[in-house]
Amino acid sequence: MKLSKYTAIVTGAASLGAAYLISTAMAEDGLGLGAAVSGVMNVGGATPWLALAALSLCFFAGWIAAFKILKQRYRSSVKSLQNHFHNEIRLLDTAIDQHSILSVTDRHGSFIKVNKNFETAFGYTSKEAIGKSASILYLAEQSDPAVSNDPGDIHPATRFTDVLDSVRDGQVWSGEQTLRRKNGGIIHVMSTILPHYDNRGNHIQSVCLRTDITQKRMTESQRQLTRMLDELQDEVFLFDVETLKISYMNKSALARCEWAAEDVLGRTIADTSVDFSVPLFRAHVAPLMDGSRDVVSIETQHEKGPVEVNTRIYSGPNGSPVFLSVLRDTSERKKLQSVKMNTMAMVSHELRTPLTSIKGALRLLQSGVTGELKPEIKSMIDIASRNSDRLLHMVNDILVLEKMNADKDEFNLEETDLAALIQEALSVNKGYGDELGVSFAQDPVPVRSLVSGNGIRLMQVMTNLMSNAAKYSPKGGTVHVGVRRHGQFLRVYVTDNGPGVPEDARATIFDSFTQFSAADGTTRSGTGLGLQICKKIVARHNGRISFVSEPGVETTFYFDLPRLARSPDLTVVKSDRAPVPGDTETLDENTNMASSG
Amino acid sequence: MSDLKKILHVDDDEDIRTIAQMSLEMVGGFDLEQCASGREALVVAPSFLPDLLLLDVMMPEMTGEQLWNKLMQMPALANTPTIFMTAKVEHSFLTHLLHDGALAIVEKPFDPMELSQEILTAWNARRHAA
For residue A343, how many other CB atoms are within 10 A of its CB? Predict the structure, then answer.
């Protein structure tokens, strides 16, 4: 008994040891359970009861081991599942973030988070958006007559409060919306708004996913229009007012740039020509931006010939303002113009020979070498002489114009001091003023005001403007002449107190042969070509010429030339006269600005 | 070097010849001979032996410049100072004539009361330079 008891103890201990071994082995690989058990059976063969107890013990130990294994397995599978889900969610997040316009709002509808797509689509940076109510995106919340005068017209989907209410009621809101970008433009989106609740069922935030469907909304008629634009010879460009990013170019435009339609993406209008200057373009379109003009146009030289570019602001397909530039090849027109001008020049040339005889004969008669003339005859001869002079001026002006049109004119630009030029112009034109009883007065001018100019041609402009001013001045009047700084330009001005330029003549005053009656209805002698010549000369200097006229009070003709960097600061020189009125005048747009196309 | 007396004027336009004649004879007091073409001038010049040639540039058949070249080949006339008259005032062309030795260029239309003085001024400038 003692022995069997002992044996049982030993067997039990062996079983325990075996169980431990088994459990460990199973924990390690879970195999060999049968082998271990049969081993124990052999050990405990002597006493069946003890063996049974040992076996039970062994099973018990096995269960413990199995539980241990299962627990470990469960843990690791939960962990990997967690990892798996975590990755999946992260991937999903990224996909949504990449694909959708995403925003999260609090329960009041204020932004908590917005993604990159949101910033791009609506034009608000995340900093600007966060904390603001999502109502900023909704049309109905802003009074804009362009959208609708009657709030009843607005589709419920565009009402912020309607959407918010529906989400608060626990519904997922989904549908098309027409929303507003920061710059006022319209954007069409497909939206899904999901409310999010806390454990107690309180609405705490909403997640909003949107897709831009503006392009899709482009109607068939618009596509038709695009196709028609593609057939045009003229080049058409649509580009953003702020970023100058191109949104559309028609076929002709693409062909010249040697681009495919998809090359347009991400490029700006400045990429369309090597000569494009953004600052010059901005200056050019300034009248569009401030609303003083509906369209601006320039003539410029492109790689493939002369072109004319008309630019206006247009409300783009998504309602945001874009520049619409139409670029037209003007080489044919230029050719025709030059043929016309050539013919005129030839005729003018031919006129000089008979004029020589007429003028010569009259001059000899007037001089008395052919004998004394009766006063009546002399006065008739004077009339003939004056008019032959006028004819000659015209002929000369036409020849000068033709030369400049054909670029035959030698036109060297060198550093020119406008102050000195004015000084000289005063002495040159003094005689003419004296004849008319008009004096010229020089306003205080800076000592040195340098431009890149052609002295002879600029003197021609001065003489033209000054003789015009004198001609239209009242007897005993004074014409003021001066120069002052005007931004990047130097402005030379000639001011008279004559009758001024009548309203209906203003648009055409710088065109050929526009002799007009002054605002008082009188005309003065002249060829009608002088101002056109001035315009051409100033344009050759990359400048512009214009005027401001208050009939009967004051009329100022002026031209602006780009200031040379070395020119001293003119603001130190004070003028005792009121400044020349600002920029509300008719501007000559035909300056040699870089192309906008 | 003698004073300027004899001038040969060549111009295809009859009226201009008349004006120039009055101007140069009545106002200037010169001894004037006139021709209507280059061909005529080539005949008249060797016998007239002018002190100065006054040539219109643009003439049919033979231009003033062509005539000048021909006259300069005649030994008796080879160094005769020459003034051109032209309605075509193109800078490059004028420079070219002056470069080739023309004394001056008178622009048409000219003032008949000033023409003689203009010619004399050029003549005297040449004498000073010589």
Answer: 11
Find, among A308, A240, A332, the residue nearest to A597 by Cα. A308
A490 Cβ neighbours under 8 A, 6+ residues apart: A418, A449, A451, A483, A484, A560, A561, A563, A567, A570
Query: Hey, is the C-beta of A412 within 8 angstroms of any chain B C-beta?
Result: no
Q: Which token pair is B115? A: 């023409």
Best CA proximity match to A299, nearest among A547, A514, A532, A540: A540
Render pLDDT for A471-509 as a digit per residue (tens, 0 to 9): 889 889 999 999 998 888 899 999 998 888 888 778 778
pLDDT in tens, A315-344: 766 667 889 999 998 888 888 877 887 787
Cβ within 8 Å, pair B15-A354: yes
Tokens of A64: 């413990």
Which chain B residues touch A if contact means CB-CB below 8 Å? 13, 15-16, 18-20, 22-23, 26-27, 87-88, 90-92, 108-113
Q: What is the mean pLDDT of residues A114-140?
A: 88
Biggest alpha carbon–alpha carbon distance for chain A: 182
Considering CB atoms only, which of A354, A360, A410 is closest to B112?
Answer: A360
Query: Which of B126, B92, B111 lies closest to B23 in space, CA to CA?
Result: B111
Beta pairing, strands B6-10 & B31-35: parallel
Which amino acid does the sequence have at A58? Answer: C
Of residues B16, B22, B27, nearest to A353 (C-beta): B16
Instruction: Give the ipTM of the model, two decimals please.
Output: 0.85
Q: Report the pLDDT averaged over residues B78-104.
A: 86
Cβ-contact A422, A463 below 8 angstroms: no
* Pair of tokens at residue B118: 């203009």
Would you call A410 an interface residue with chain B, using a CB distance cutoff of 8 Å?
A: yes
Single pTM value for the model: 0.49
Asked if A360 has any chain B CB less than 8 Å from its own CB, the reply is yes
Quick one: pLDDT at residue B69? Answer: 95
Distance from CA of B16 to the nearest CA of A (A): 5
Q: Does A370 touch chain B (CB under 8 A)?
A: yes
pLDDT tens digits along A536-570: 889 888 888 999 988 888 999 999 998 887 544 44
CB contact under 8 A, B112 and A349: no
Residue A39 one-letter amino acid: G
